[in-house]
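Model it.
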Amino acid sequence: MMVKPEKLDPVWNDLDRTMGQLFMMGFDGTAITPQIKTLIEKHYLGCILLTAKNLKSAEDTTKLCYELQKIAHDAGHPVPLAIGVDQENGGVNSLFDEIYIRQYPSSMGIAASGSTELAFEVAKATAQEISACGINWIFGPCLDVLTNARNQPLGVRTAGDDPQEVSAFGNAFIKGYKEAGVVTLGKHFPSYGNLEFLGSTLDVPIITESLEQLSLSALIPFRSGIQNGLDAMMVGGCAMSSAGLNAMHACLSEQVVDGLLRNDLNFNGVIVSECLEMDALSHNIGVGGGTVMAVNAGCDVILLCRAFSMQQEAIRGLKTGLESSMISKERIYNSLRRVLHMKSKCTSWEKALNPPGINYLETLQPSHTALSTRAYNSSITVVRDKKGFLPLSNLLDSEEELLLLTPLVKPLAASAAFKALSETITEKSPEPAAWERSASVMSGERVFRELGRSLARQRSGRVLHTSYTANGVRPVHENLINRASAVIVLTADANRNLYQNGFTKHVAMICNSNFTTGGEKREKPLIVVSVSSPYDFAMESTIGTYICTYDFTETALNSLVKVIFGELSPTGNLPGTISKSQKLSHSRQHWLVENFNEERDANALDALITAVIEGTSPGQRSELSSATSNSFVLHQQDVEESHFVVRNSSTQALYGFCSTYFFKNTGTGVIGALFVDPTRRKLSIGHSLHNRAIRTLLQKDKIKRFQLGSRLPSVFLGIPTGHGAERKRLRSWFANLGWNAALSRPVCNMVARNLLNWTPPEGMAKSLASAGSQFDLVYGWDYAGPILDHIKTSNRQGLAEVYKMALADPSSCGIIRAKRPEDGALVGTVVLYNNHSHLSDFIPPLKDLNEAAGGISSPVISPGVGEYSTLLQGLILLGMRQIKAQGCNACLLDYMDGDGNFDGFTSMGFTVMHNFEEVSCDAATWTMIPPS
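Modeled.
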């Protein structure tokens, strides 16, 4: 499990130096204290934790980090300090500076945007800012899955309750942090997402899930993060109690740390313990004994937040453990190697003693300010607006009053780990004003007052603003509600602050009561805004207009004001599974859409195709019935193809697939297939795939038109229309996405069977002779020039590719040509192929015939030819003769105009196999692209 098993520098023979690297400690105040100086100089402390109580501004933080590193350097430390901080954004930012440090949405807010690209950008920007100040270790990302979302203190600090989504956004955060040069720490292993709280601060929250349950959900993001290069992991201090797994504190359990994390999940990075000063742990075990237990369990770094006496006790405990052989030197040095390897990735003395500071932050400020605004604008979610109260500007006249009701809320704790400690500090700190200022992004009253001012400025009308408490709806509230023409109520974690839930429902009841204004009875508009956990009223349909901001920073509430007054169209969606459990009128799940990887996804695509075929209604034929993963990948020089999947990254299963092609010679962008696992429909997987496909095609240079349905590959020629109800559903679905089905063109596949007993209709040969054309059958690329020039007279998508594929495969494909006798000019062509040809791989209906069959494809008749239908029938007649002569018993016409005169083809023995509607539109008209 050692990262670097090579021999260590002799300097580490000094055990005091070595042991110092295995501790991370914090201190009180915004300046160097004698205690932290002693820990660095005398005990060689290798890691420092900075929290909000240490950090006044970006400039002071840069100075503080430099001074800490200088002390370590002058004390002879071989390597710089690892300096860590909680900077999760949203309500949890240890470093705050109104000028230089930007505010970004919480993890759940970013997840609501649906964009892992945005997550990467925000993570990188966050890490760049703290790195500029000299911080090299970020305590993130939060990889907890909210399996019991409504009762958790974690709230919006994690991406939600869907392990796949938490993994996707966690990995994007990891990538962004690393890009900026800081090392990462996943937390809180093995998940704080389903804790049982017993009440007393001396009682430890308990994980009651079994290992099997954890593996199916909570452990998925941790496993994924490890695979994506997570540098460190914090193991929580919670208890675990289930069959086969009992631990008083996870971070002290060898079964959890060495067994589950190190061995089962193959984690080779640095493992950090929960803070050993937490009341339950220090009272039940003691810090000295806890240190020995944590090291023996497999922790590499022991965290002690602030009390100097406890920090000294921990150092003594580790020494005693070594001297008594309770801890082996091998374990100490294995941990040292991991710590040194981690530090080598994020720091050096050159870097540590020269933090970029304010000058660099000034250069970042413009782009990061724009990113912050974009991120918040993307996260705001309108969950419901049943009565159309948004935007309010449509309802309120300038002389009418708007009422804002906001809860009295405490600043959020800097992190779950330090909740009890932070409360103690808030109570005892001699400088409460400093705490309030440094944590101002978390203080509700100041931000809510500014929200009231912003609402008033935006509407040029009066806004009444008052707060509410656990005392409920008072007469003053009732009077203001009656006086106002519309009401906005803010809640912050109403599921845990139940008075907010009751207050809001009481206000809703008052607003729902009919009242008279100018003799007219109407409902008073009520907008409820959750400014923290979206779970407050997500399932409460009696709250008709419900918006989520995911945190109550000024930037978030600025975006909220824009949404309320119609300046910003909200694009956020509730993250996780909650939006799947109900029908949300304004919200749609945005799935992570990835590029199709042929090597990785081919087998999974075959399994998805099988699932779709098996899920087809009885009596209905599936267009995919003979398709395989190979049916969609063309590898043609003149076709740019991009295919997309929604998949489960743990099981590798595909939930949906979409193929797109850009035919450069015609400037046509095509969606050639879009299908979803039948068991996962109505979850917006298809929407997510479609949106990604359209956005990708729009970026193609010189794109002229869009087409739904593809001649090549010839799986879906358009919207399948074989059954009335299904046709109506699919037409409606695509129409809602922006396709104009009224402009569709019917196309179909046709088949002639019993070809071995077939004879041409009487008189058809005579008609063919009267057409006055000469026919021949040619094979191979030598004939390409005139044929490819001829087919340019048609601009149909995919024609050239079909002909080139046929010309390149003379053993299985041929071209029948019709020429004018007088000058030999081509006036008609058609492609012949059999089921051994490369072309047939992309035309599954041929294999669907389940017998020896040949195909006729892509007839092209020159414009102006008088005997168009006669010439077309002649080419097909000769093709049928040729296919019969090869011993085939069936013939496929793979792409025919569905509104043409079928009489001639019917008389030749053809019947319709599949019907489609090919939909096309000018690329310039495609302007309403749904948000990604």
